[in-house]
Specification:
The chain has 533 residues and is α+β, with helices and mostly antiparallel strands. The two termini are 34 Å apart. It has 15 helices and 12 strands.
Length: 533
């Protein structure tokens, strides 16, 4: 009985199940930790005002409590904000130092464009020229002033867009001028003079827009308010520098829900600020999704075609065995090696030659001879194509030989058999390879750091300017964003909430894309009924 127990492999079945359970438990625990720390970041916490034994006061948001290392009571960590006043955002306080704690209703939180949040109390509003409610409380006047300043800033965004368009057009004219000079066009020719005239006209328009923007900024910065911290230190803050003002201790639950929803919307569609530790992540989300799709466009067809050739057409021999060994070994090479290869082969090799052939007038300034989303996508495609090849080969190999023989016996050619019988039946397995490739590509950062990703990209790879899809542009990526703010930020403690939020967002994007691919795979399974992979 015992011999049969070992002979049929029952212990290995249990060992495999245990290993799978442990793996799933680790994955679920990791996701749970990320969700617990990431989902609560934007919920508005109440402000506590503490009176300490040394006579000072503190206004802050309670973050966590933990035992003092001496084992005598607890200590609390507060976010105290006011970085420009205190030089730090967080402070630990022993409970034994606290005399009194309360929640003042008039405590106010300001989200600022720079220097982080401000915690304090509103003293007065200086907004001469704005229509403020006469005799109203200072907070009502501040809200009315902020609404009007926000409307003026929104109007100024139209000027910013015009400036961006004019700047892009000027850059294109500069390139046209360089190209004409490189081609030896006579400076006295009508085409060259017309080019110079257009440049002068656009420069005049650009300077007029800059002056218009400067006046608008000067006008906006005259509106200010005075605030004081818990110890009475006052500070004048320009209203245009305030992103949002609210009193967290007076928010009802439904107002907290609206506040949370608004912050989620800002996270998804907003632009980053404060060195990426505040604001939205739209450029990074856009760059990540675009990178995955562009990578798939190269990796998927290349991997499937290579696998079909190896499985269905190549004759078994020494060379095919070497190729299969090479493919399997490629899957185990560290990703940074792919990055170095992409930098040398794509950027310095192909990119530099493209510049010499098509953009010689721009040299030594590179166009394609520098990092960009095209080279990063190709590098990741090389990194993930072994996964697609192996998965596709396994899927094709799992189809019984009788299906091929039956199709050929009915008069179909080998290509018709491949196209109408084998590929549909293998499609679920091929989609599995694509899912694995997309998941790995989304999480890779090392090769991107040297092939095109940046901390803050000035423009998206897609915009309304011809040719609309700018493959040479650098881009932002959620994985690099996590690395940057988590390990490169000078204020790591303040950036920690955004690390969890960005990680949660990256996990959700990977799950969403994988779920879409799994849904397609399941539809293929139902349609073609047979699948053993």
């Amino acid at each position: 009985m015992r011999r049969n127990y070992w002979k049929i492999g029952e212990p290995w079945v249990w060992a495999t199940g245990a290993a799978l359970s442990v793996t799933l438990l680790i994955a679920v625990t990791l996701i749970a930790v990320i969700m617990v720390n990431g989902l609560g970041v934007f919920w508005p916490g109440k402000l506590q005002q503490l009176e300490l034994k040394d006579g000072s006061k503190l206004l802050g948001e309670l973050i966590q409590s933990e035992p003092v290392h001496r084992g005598e009571g607890l200590r609390r960590q507060y976010k105290i904000a006011n970085r420009d006043l205190y030089g730090l955002d967080f402070r630990w306080i022993d409970e034994t130092e606290i005399l009194r704690a309360d929640h003042p209703a008039t405590a106010i939180v300001l989200e600022r464009e720079e220097n982080g949040d401000f915690f304090g109390f509103l003293d007065s509003v200086y907004a001469s020229g704005l229509e403020l409610p006469a005799g109203a409380a200072p907070y009502a006047q501040l809200s009315a002033a902020l609404d009007q300043v926000s409307a003026m800033k929104a109007a100024g965004h139209a000027t910013d867009q015009q400036l961006s368009t004019a700047s892009y057009r000027l850059e294109q004219l500069r390139r046209d001028q360089l190209k004409a000079e490189y081609q030896g066009v006579d400076p006295r020719s009508s085409s060259y003079q017309e080019l110079l005239y257009e440049q002068e006209r656009l420069k005049a328009d650009f300077e007029q827009l800059v002056e218009q923007q400067r006046k608008a900024q000067t006008n906006l910065r005259q509106y200010q308010s005075t605030f004081s911290d818990a110890n009475g230190r006052t500070r004048n803050i320009v209203l245009a520098d305030i992103v949002q003002a609210y009193r967290p201790n007076q928010l009802a639950w439904h107002q907290q829900v609206f506040f949370y929803a608004a912050k989620l919307k800002e996270l998804i569609v907003g632009e980053p600020r404060e060195s990426n530790t505040e604001g939205g992540l739209f450029p990074a989300i856009f760059g990540t999704i675009m990178l995955i799709f562009t990578m798939s466009l190269f990796s998927f067809p290349l991997g499937v075609i290579a696998a079909i050739y190896l499985r269905e057409y190549a004759r078994e021999g020494f060379i095919v065995r070497v190729v299969r060994i090479a493919v399997n070994n490629l899957a185990g090479i560290p990703s940074i090696v792919y990055g170095i290869f992409g930098l040398g082969f794509f950027v310095y090799g192909i990119g530099s030659n493209i510049d010499k052939l098509f953009f010689p007038e721009q040299l030594p300034t590179p166009t394609f001879g520098t990092g960009g989303i095209l080279w990063a996508s190709l590098t990741l495609a090389l990194l993930t194509v072994p996964v697609v090849i192996v998965a596709t080969e396994e899927a094709l190999g799992a189809i019984p030989r009788e299906f091929r023989e039956g199709s050929l016996a009915l008069g179909a050619t080998k290509f018709q058999t491949l196209l109408r019988i084998l590929l549909p039946m293998a499609s679920p397995g091929i989609m599995t390879g694509l899912i694995l490739a997309m998941a790995r590509a989304a999480g890779e950062v090392a090769p991107l750091m040297i092939t095109g990703v940046v901390k803050l990209a000035p423009a998206l790879p897609i915009d309304g300017n011809f040719p609309f899809f700018h493959l040479d542009r650098k881009f932002m990526h959620l994985g690099f964003h996590i690395f940057d703010i988590g390990f490169q930020s000078p204020n790591v403690e303040a950036a920690k909430p955004m690390v969890f939020v960005t990680t949660l967002l990256l996990v959700l994007i990977v799950l969403a894309l994988s779920s879409l691919a799994i849904w397609l795979r399941n539809r293929m399974k139902k349609r073609y009924t047979f699948s053993t992979f």
